[in-house]
From TrEMBL:
Pfam families: PAS_4, STAS
Keyword Transmembrane carried by entry: no
Protein species of origin: Sorangium cellulosum
SUPFAM superfamilies from the UniProt entry: PYP-like sensor domain (PAS domain), SpoIIaa-like
Positions of the STAS domain: 260-375
Annotated SMART domains: PAS
Keyword 4Fe-4S found: no
Domain PAS, first and last residues per copy: 130-185
Positions of the PAC domain: 193-244
Name under which the protein is recorded: Anti-anti-sigma factor
Alphabetically ordered keywords of this record: Phosphoprotein
């Protein structure tokens, strides 16, 4: 071949001195010749026998490998977008055009640098970044990511969470999720109708919390459902242990309440409620609830409130006690207060509370004697 001055030049010289990033590779993808511009761009990595794929970013090599068979089978140019190594700049976005030559069986190609703001490449890079992030999550967290088609057949099945179930990646592809697991919560059926949801389930001896998200096509129809199942077995076990502890605490509190406000049936129809220690509004309210329930369930006629062990009451407590006696009367029983200490009596007087309608006795013995006398008294005769 001759140049413009009539001087003969070889094909190697033509490729080497081209102003474009040219290369020649064998059918196996190994580089054989390249232009000076490509050599200056890539740097020391470029050497005879270097696989063309090694010039590409690791995330872009798959696209080249996938389409290489097309290059070998056809002389039609094929364009591949990606990033190639660049001295001093890391990787630069390029469009690689390759074509097989039937005459010598070699592959000829060139690189064309793309502008940094190329929309298609940016979108490709974003998709690959999302894929990288999702891959890291799926491989690290105790999750299983799966996809089903509108019939419920698995089309994708991956995730580190499969280790606990003894499954392998892709094992369920082609099987129907409803045949395998059913759908007790109905969340999956709703997702297939276009409504995302969340459900808790048991499978393979573990507890799973699953989020299901429908994927729509351009017409708005659900074309698939993405599932994200998280192994929450440890959390559920921790909740069960916590609930057991709460149940024990609640039982202990019931015992304490019964001890602090014990209702004693001293005689048929006679109940006694001894109050001991510090009496506050909360404790009085609890005692009121328990006593009224006991009067109703046992059909008691008398309820004796023994305040012998109470040293002091405040305004709210005194008011609660009076309202308690009135509530007892509304249930058809009679309330008696006994054992009022001087300090408590002084408080009642200072508050101006009217106890004239309430029976009061000096001590519990006197209160119980009053009840016995009332029980022995003959019923009044009816008058006509």
């Amino acid at each position: 071949m001759a140049n413009a001055n009539g001087t003969l030049v070889s094909l190697d010289d033509l490729v080497a001195h081209s102003t474009e990033m040219l290369f020649v590779a064998g059918v196996d993808g190994a580089l054989l010749r390249w232009s000076d511009l490509l050599r200056r761009t890539v740097g020391p990595l470029l050497a005879r026998g270097t696989p063309l794929s090694e010039l590409f970013h690791p995330e872009d090599r798959g696209a080249l490998t996938t389409r290489w068979a097309e290059v070998r089978a056809s002389a039609t140019p094929i364009q591949i977008r990606g990033r190639i190594l660049s001295v001093g700049r890391g990787y630069r976005p390029v469009a690689c055009v390759v074509r097989g030559a039937s005459a010598d069986g070699l592959v000829h190609g060139s690189f064309r640098e793309l502008p940094p703001d190329d929309g298609a490449l940016d979108e490709l890079l974003r998709l690959r970044e999302r894929e990288r992030i999702l891959g890291a999550l799926v491989e690290t967290l105790p999750v299983v990511v799966w996809v089903i088609d509108p019939r419920g057949v698995f089309t994708y099945h991956e995730g580190n969470g499969m280790k606990v179930s003894g499954q392998t990646p892709g094992q369920l592809i082609g099987q129907n999720i409803f045949d395998l697991y059913g759908d007790e919560s109905g969340a999956l059926r709703r997702a297939m109708m276009g409504h995302p949801g969340r459900a808790l389930s048991e499978a393979h001896g573990h507890a799973w919390e699953t989020w299901v998200v429908p994927v729509h096509d351009t017409t708005g129809q659900v074309q698939s459902v993405i599932g994200f199942s998280l192994d929450v077995t440890q959390e559920r076990q921790a909740q069960q242990v916590l609930q057991m502890k709460l149940d024990v605490i609640e039982a202990q509190q019931r015992v304490i309440r019964e001890l602090t406000a014990p209702i004693i049936e001293v005689w048929d129809g006679v109940l006694a409620l001894p109050m001991i220690g510090v009496v506050d509004s909360a404790r009085t309210a609890e005692a009121m609830e328990c006593l009224l329930e006991a009067i109703s369930s046992r059909s008691a006629r008398f309820a004796v409130l023994d305040l012998t062990g109470v040293q002091m009451v405040d305004t709210k407590v005194a008011d609660h006690l009076i309202r308690l006696v009135r509530a007892i009367q509304l249930l058809g029983a009679e309330g008696i207060i006994c054992g009022i200490r001087p300090t408590v009596a002084q408080t009642v007087v200072e508050l101006g509370l009217d106890l004239s309608a309430i029976v009061t006795k000096a001590n519990l013995r006197a209160g119980l004697m009053y009840c016995m006398q009332r029980l022995r008294a003959p019923a009044p005769r009816a008058t006509h």
